TrEMBL record:
Broad class of enzyme this protein falls into: lyase
Assigned protein family: Belongs to the TYW1 family.
EC number: 4.1.3.44
Record-linked Pfam families: Flavodoxin_1, Radical_SAM, Wyosine_form
Comp. bias regions, Acidic residues: 288-305
Stretches that traverse the bilayer: 22-41
Biased composition (Basic residues): 258-269
BP-aspect Gene Ontology terms: wybutosine biosynthetic process
An annotated Gene Ontology molecular function: tRNA-4-demethylwyosine synthase activity
Gene designation: Tyw1
The protein, known as: S-adenosyl-L-methionine-dependent tRNA 4-demethylwyosine synthase TYW1
């Protein structure tokens, strides 16, 4: 009975194990204890070796590692690849400091580069520092009236605009590590070290990380912390070199980014000795609200320094910080900053100056004109100045983007669109409620401000000399900056003044003022925004203030059909909001009979408490193309004529602009000026039509071309860092 014997044997073994279980447990426990002790001493010995060698690896910089039975070599991690020292100097002091710092860095056996801000193009190169593992040091002086030195003017202008432009975002320079030393004179208390503070703040807003607290040198020996600006710099340099050595060993980390006024504060109580040698990256004390209020108050001070109501605050887009606070707090802050001064903007009427102050505070990057107008430099103007291509209006209609002035005579609007690129920081209203400025003054100041903004590009790297000279004379005016230009009571006089200065007029309206459209004098091209095709979707997307918004919308389209000059529907596609209403769009096209239909994918404008749009609502260019192709099939009088891939935009044109098989969507601007002058001299008796000033469209601008709407005379610039959609217009 083999099976019986096997069972007896198994039973005996199990009983024996049970009876001796205590000894088995003891052996296992002893083995585990020995293993833990061995691991403890091994780890301790390894750490001791690393400390003596100054790096996690051996002195030769490599370590053996067994993988699948083979010995391999792993290079030690490089924490700092080198140091780049940027300086902006007017009298040579910052340059001298940069040279001295470079010599000290070289003594640490680190690569170093000393770069004048005037010879550096941040638009092309700064983003590369996010992955270079370099430490970037900025030594910059504050010059007259708080302005940067001439050599640093373009660098500071670009950085300030990028920091406040939603298209770059809060992580554009994430990975860049930096330190700032500002040079100033506290005798000029209102402007003391303004430039250094701005650069520090702008870099932080773009996601860069401080490696140490911003420092400031003072030429005023009576106030200097160390007796002179040279001594201030030497003290900072010693601290910087200490931090740099620690970073090279991987012992320190950059600031976490929530520090106040550029000062990194430790959450732990440390003695003075330990804080000098063991100052670690730590948690920071200020809250997001404090950061916002501090930034706002500093911006307000900066604006006062520049003087006059035309100076604007440096918060380009409040969407960058609105995600941290409720919009109401920002509005209250804007209204309370100067509530004690009843003469803000030169008016004693509280209702006027409160509204003006709100506009003044919120519309950064703008040059404000009077009480209700503004002008701003479009990014496409800058792009074409540098030979990097024009906007979609250059492709579709032949405007010269570097000669285009973007302006508005009315900052107010009657809609609160979900995709508003101003995040609803502009005033809203259904009627004119502001003290009206004269059109002559508005145009004169718009041109002067535009020219002053162009002048800032003189000598900037990449700017073409011939285009710079041309840009000083505006040839086009896009009345689409923000708000509702047609609300301005003297819009006809303003448009006539533009034409008298040989400036073409591109006017955009939101289809809520049908009477004003009917009464509008001829403009070069009249746009109507058609953001939705049904009453329900229009209310959801545009959020109009008028109760009879839908009837006003339809009446505006009917009024557009009566115009003899060029008319355009402007469709903004928002995925999951308005892309499924093709038949309804076709019906609206039949109602207004526009000459052209622009279809553009929505541009994501960043986070905002006023909208819940995300990048998921931005259609791909292929999706926009497919939408336009399907729409064109429903409107037999129209075909796809042009494409501007960079702006995610296509143009449908009425077939009357296809002459002898060739598209004529471009504009003969000289001929238009002749026709509009004849119209005015005849008192309106002599009319003209869109076909009278049409011009042939070049092949590169046509839909289906290899260039996809990019002018071959220019060179397309591709950003080298993170893929990011900054294509807005």
């Amino acid at each position: 009975n083999v099976s019986m014997d096997t069972w007896n044997f198994s039973y005996t073994c199990l009983v024996s194990l049970w009876l001796h279980r205590f000894y088995i447990y003891s052996v296992v426990a002893f083995g585990i204890s020995v293993w833990i002790i061995i691991q403890f001493f091994t780890t301790k010995t390894k750490k001791k070796g690393e400390k003596s060698n100054g790096s996690p690896a051996s002195s030769e910089g490599i370590k053996d590692k067994l993988v699948n039975g083979y010995a391999t070599l792993q290079a030690k991690e490089v924490y700092v690849a080198g140091v780049k020292i940027f300086y902006g100097s007017q009298t040579g002091t910052a340059k001298k400091f940069a040279t001295g710092l470079a010599e000290a860095v070289i003594s640490l056996n680190l690569p170093v580069a000393v770069i004048s801000m005037g010879d550096y193009d941040p638009d092309d190169c700064l983003a590369e520092e996010t992955t270079s593992r370099n430490i970037c040091v900025f030594l910059v002086a504050t010059y007259t009236d708080g302005q940067p030195p001439e050599s640093a003017a373009w660098f500071c202008k670009w950085l300030g605009e990028a920091a406040n432009d939603f298209r770059f975002g809060k992580t554009y320079l994430k990975g860049l590590r930096y330190a700032v030393f500002g040079l100033g004179n506290s005798v000029y208390v209102d402007h003391y070290n303004t430039v250094g503070r701005n650069i520090d703040r702008w870099l932080w807003m773009l996601g860069a990380s401080r490696i140490m607290t911003r420092a400031e040198g003072d030429c005023n020996v009576a106030q200097s912390k160390h007796g002179s600006i040279e001594s201030d710099f030497e003290a900072w340099k010693a601290k910087f070199l200490s931090w740099l050595q620690a970073l090279c060993r991987g012992e320190k980390k950059p600031c976490s980014g929530k520090c106040k006024k550029g000062k990194c504060k430790s959450s732990r109580k440390q003695s003075k000795e330990s804080s000098d040698q063991e100052h670690r990256a730590s948690e920071h004390e200020n809250t997001e609200a404090e950061e916002l209020f501090e930034t706002s108050s500093e911006e307000e001070a900066d604006a006062e320094e520049a003087g006059g109501t035309n100076a604007v605050v440096d918060v380009e887009d409040l969407g960058n910080i609105m995600s941290h606070m409720k919009k109401a707090k920002v509005l209250l802050l804007g209204l309370s900053v100067r509530a004690s001064d009843p003469h803000v903007g030169g008016h004693s009427d509280p209702a006027h100056w409160a509204g003006s102050l709100l506009i003044y505070f919120l519309f950064s990057g703008y040059k404000l004109i009077g009480s209700h107008s503004g002008v701003k430099l479009c990014r496409w103007t800058k792009s074409m100045l540098r030979g990097r291509g024009g906007c979609y209006k250059h492709t579709f209609y032949g405007i010269e983007s570097h000669r285009c002035m973007e302006a508005t005579p009315s900052l107010a609007c009657a809609n609160k669109c979900v995709f508003c690129w101003r995040h609803h920081t502009n005033p809203v209203g259904t009627e004119w409620r502001w003290k009206m400025d004269q059109p002559e003054m508005i145009l004169q100041e718009a041109i002067e401000n535009h020219q002053n903004m162009i002048k800032q590009f003189k000598g900037v790297s990449g700017v073409k000399a011939d285009r710079f000279e041309e840009a000083m004379t505006a040839k086009h005016c896009a009345l689409s900056l923000v708000g509702e230009p047609i609300m301005y009571p003297e819009i006809n006089r303003f448009v006539k003044l533009l034409h008298q200065h040989s400036i073409s007029s591109f006017l955009v309206t939101n289809a809520q003022f049908p009477d004003e459209i009917r009464n509008l004098e001829p403009v070069t091209q009249l746009y109507v925004s058609v953001d939705a095709s049904t009453k329900e979707s229009l209310k959801r997307i545009d959020r109009p203030l008028f109760k009879d918004f839908w009837q006003r919308f339809l009446d505006s389209l009917k009024a557009l059909s009566e115009k003899q000059q060029r008319t355009v529907y402007r469709l903004t596609l928002v995925k999951a909001w308005n892309v499924d209403e093709l038949k309804a769009y076709a019906d609206l096209i039949a109602l207004g009979k526009p000459d052209f239909v622009e279809v553009k994918g929505v541009t994501y404008c960043g986070e905002s408490s006023a909208s819940n749009l995300t990048m998921a609502n931005v259609p791909w260019h292929e999706e926009v193309v497919r939408f336009v192709q399907e729409l064109a099939d429903l409107v037999p009088d129209y075909e796809i004529a042009c494409e501007h891939e960079h702006s995610n935009c296509l143009l449908m044109a009425h077939k009357k602009f296809k002459v002898d098989g060739e598209w004529c969507t471009w504009i003969n601007y000289g001929r238009f000026q002749e026709l509009v002058r004849e119209h005015e001299r005849s008192g309106g008796a002599k009319t003209f039509t869109a076909a009278d000033y049409a011009a042939k469209t070049p092949r590169w601008a046509l839909f289906g071309s290899r260039e996809r709407g990019f002018d071959p005379l220019d060179v397309r610039y591709q950003r080298k860092n993170k893929a990011r959609d900054i294509s807005g217009c």
